[in-house]
Queue: 4 jobs
Job 1
Amino acid sequence: MILAYVLRLGEALHRELKSDGITVTALCPGMSDTGFATAAQQKITPALKRLMMQPVPVVRAGIRAPHAGRISIVPGLENK
């Protein structure tokens, strides 16, 4: 529920600030292999590991999206 709020807030800010030349983009990364799950001692199955995106493509998508004027971005086919 909190994630939906953050997404809607980002969309609202995008629309509200667009006329001022400010772009707000909500980045919805999905599962990313950042090492957090391991540090949190979560069990990572081989299937889940294959679904996790590497951080670099997520960051690249997050950097490109505002420059393209995107309201939101979900990197990776599996996450979409």
Job 2
Amino acid sequence: MEGIKNFLKRKNIEISLKRYGIDALGAMAQGLFCSLLIGTIINTFGAQFNIPALTNVVATINDTEYTVGGLASAMSGPAMAVAIGYALQAPPLVLFSLITAGFASNALGGAGGPLAVLFVAIVTAEIGKAVSKETKIDILVTPLVTIGVGVLLSAWWAPPLGALANEVGSLIMWATELRPFLMGILVSVIVGIALTLPISSAAICAALSLTGLAGGAAVAGCCAQMVGFAVMSFKENKWGGLISQGIGTSMLQMGNIVKNPRIWIAPILCSAITGPIATCVFKMEMNGAAISSGMGTCGLVGPIGVYTGWVSEITEGTRAAITGLDWFGLLLICFVLPAVITPLINMVCRKLGWVKDGDLTLDA
């Protein structure tokens, strides 16, 4: 046993909640943002402002056409895997080999691709670290073992993890069949949680074609998480944190949530409030691209999706005009209410001693 401990220490393999649940998750959030999320933002802005450089096809691979944003989104699996490997302090040959493992696990995982990447990349990276520099032909052994393990684990684990993520999607679809009030709560809370978790809420919404009233509730839930975390953590993270979470991703808080799950109470309760307000009071629908339902304020894609839906309805003749009430509801649900309600609920959590100074601090 002592020999195993010494080997793990020598290989910098630390089996701990901090290493896997905080370091790896935090890095993965950055990898996801630098690929899928930023790609979607680029595509959205290109389409909205008619920027040819962002809407033109720049590459065609196996009959699939890619824009700049499309190329970024296509690299989400490798980006997340390499980010995880970097957090686990993997040596270069292991780190570069994780590109293949990330691509395989994300592709085979479907809507649950990011969740599959998390598990596969962690195990693959640690096994790669274990064999690294143990032979005189390390240049061959380490990539072969790392890629081999990564692909095998992807084939084994990614499909069921993807199915698990799709179960979340099925629950969302079930919620859309209920009355607007209860549906607003369930969809808003579930999609909002999915946005912050290491699963792709955007991919789930896209796979389910989640639009309409349910899409509006999803937008509300995502905005509650992003704007909520951004504003209530302003004391710790200042303007950089406000921007990175408010128009970036609330997944950046996942490491802190693992350390203290109670910091999640305020954004979740806020989404339970804004969801039914969206569906019952303002009847806000998201009839733009379905992926926008799961993006929230990330690059302002969620609100822009609601707006593009309005424009499409006017073109189709199903909507006469965009009213002041429409704009008021959109601003209230996506920005104002999350910025007000979440910090107020968090104040109660602080008074109860559930949340303390520093619990929401992001790593620099």
Job 3
Amino acid sequence: MLKVGVFGVGHLGKYHLNNWKEIPEVSIVGFFDPNNDNAKEVEKTYGLKRFMDEEALIAACDIIDIVTPTQHHFPVCEMAIKMGKNVFVEKPMANTIEEGKAIVNMVKEANVKLQVGHVERFNPAYTALKNASLNPLFIEVHRLAQFNPRGTEVSVIFDLMIHDIDIILSIVKSDIKNISASGVAVLTDTPDIANVRIEFNNGCVANLTSSRISMKKMRKIRLFQKDAYIGIDFLEKNTEIIKLKKPEDTDAFSFDIETHQGTKTISIANPVIEEGNAIKAELSSFVHAIINNETPVVSEIDGFLAMEVAHQILEKISKSTSMLKQGPDASFSDPMPLED
């Protein structure tokens, strides 16, 4: 049985504790959290040992689960990896590109497993497409949330949009050609709403909009590809596929339409959405990757690529904001292509 230690038992950390308890291959050794209120509540509710020494908790475990604020991800990752422990770390993997690169190198050198908490990869609405052929030419994303002070120590890019960046990078098998972005800080010191356009070398274009000051919640991705449209609603957990019908499509509603090329049959299918807990699924997946010596579903490489794109987006927003502050006479140059 693998022993787990949790760093950070705030709002999300408690969700992790609840789900670790339901995974039969692990046992929770204890937790570390400098917040006395959080610690007392967890000690009372879960009956877990509070460790006051970070190294002592890491030494007692096989898996370290890092659910701390982002600025603390790297030091805990570094300590755990150097002690030869497997690490699950919430997104974003680290606070800076340099920290992310260091984590990638340390994981390779230590030969341990690391998974990043991009939980939408385990959303039933997304996993329902595991057998579908996804080759989008255009992607439209909306992720909107009502304002919540929790998590605002980072921009909306790292708070919300990074989920969709990771999903898009996992779907589009191509390098990025160019990024353009704009964003506005409304209630915090960092962008609270942002719109981003990502162009890929294979011709695919992704438009992403994220806001944490919306009146309603929305978490949708729409994929447009040759002969098909796929809609994924992460919030309502449903998925829709509309495409030109093929002879093997027998389980979908269909109807005929007249086009200049003649009659075409359109099929509408809603893949079966399995009941599931995405947080439990991602933690269980990591445990099985360790036991079976497999690459985690969201590896340190995946986590680094997502945060790298997120940082590039923030740089674009910062540049455009700076130009706007200079006034109407400021000249805007064409977006610079990303380095290979």
Job 4
Amino acid sequence: MNRLLALLFIAIIPLSVLSKKKPKSKGYEFKMLFEVPTTPVKNQYRTGTCWSFSGLAFFETELLRMGKGEYDLAEMFIVRQAYIEKAQHFVRFHGKTNFGNGGIIHDVLYNIKNYGLMPESAYPGLEYDEPKHVHAEMDALLSSYVNTVIQNKNKKLSPVWLNGFEGILDAYLGNAPEEFEVEGKTYTPKSFADNLGINVDDYVILGSYTHHPFYESFVIEIPDNWLRGSIYNLPLEDMTDIVNNAIKNGYSVGWGADVSEKGFSWKNGVAIVPDDEKPELDNLEQGKWEALDDKEKQELLYKFENPIKEKIITQDLRQKQFDNYLTTDDHGMLLTGIAEDQNGNIYYKVKNSWSESGNDYKGFFFASKAFFELKTINVWVHKDALSAGIKAKLGIE
């Protein structure tokens, strides 16, 4: 067929046929129902310090709620103090406890109460010629150091071993100032925290598990809980209701959860629990998903082209996931809003600490109600966000 005939042939084809292509997916569309004002998204970068970033993002948001103004609090000051406490625990327990860069909200509350807070300007924690936080070398040195200490080569511990440990922290993060200025006033970390009006005893940590009685507290059994911190245990429905009511009434909610899931996509800004699991995903051996590279994961993942049906989450299902290490203490974040997609499904707007890049939501993503119910380790919130009935059941005044 010559070129002229080809053109004539195309000309007589109905336009409806030529334009009959697969309609472009709209993807997920979110409408905000409730939203809590918060501070700008930060970047933990190449560190395991999400617990500090999420904890201080929570308190920065609390300060906004309390009418105190916008603050940028120093995550690395909390990290430094936590590492010192953790090292002493590790040595006293002969190395039979967790040591590393991970942590949970209890670390933040403990260190604010005992050491106070600093603004980012007083302690940025970058003393090693990097523009952003990179802790692999420091973490390895600190771990090697405390493991050397517990080997007890001198047959007794040196009285200066902790000084050496702090020296590594000082070299990488910087010396923590005893005093600093904010708007012309001089503070210590303790007086700065007191001036902000933060009372850590006003905050409660909640979870939902069946291996402990409901409406009682227990020490949550996760590796990063080196402080042996307790949480209040509630039925799943109560925990979810607390979160919903808190956000609706202007309170943000701290969130510890597992985001190493097939239904979590940072690129798409969505976290879901698909009901129609793909067989090729089901057949992956435990641990193999984490071993796949990004390209391999994308080939297996849901395309997130449109909202899909999700699993119905029960108390029993979330417990089985926790008991079988399918839900682990993975990441700390902040819930700042409630939204719905174009089908009316409910999601939580989540403030992350992976910078403002990577997706279209500038450092936030949307976690479905099912994802929240299945993958939550714990949540934390001001006690005033709890109803009188829940407070009575938990014995909270």
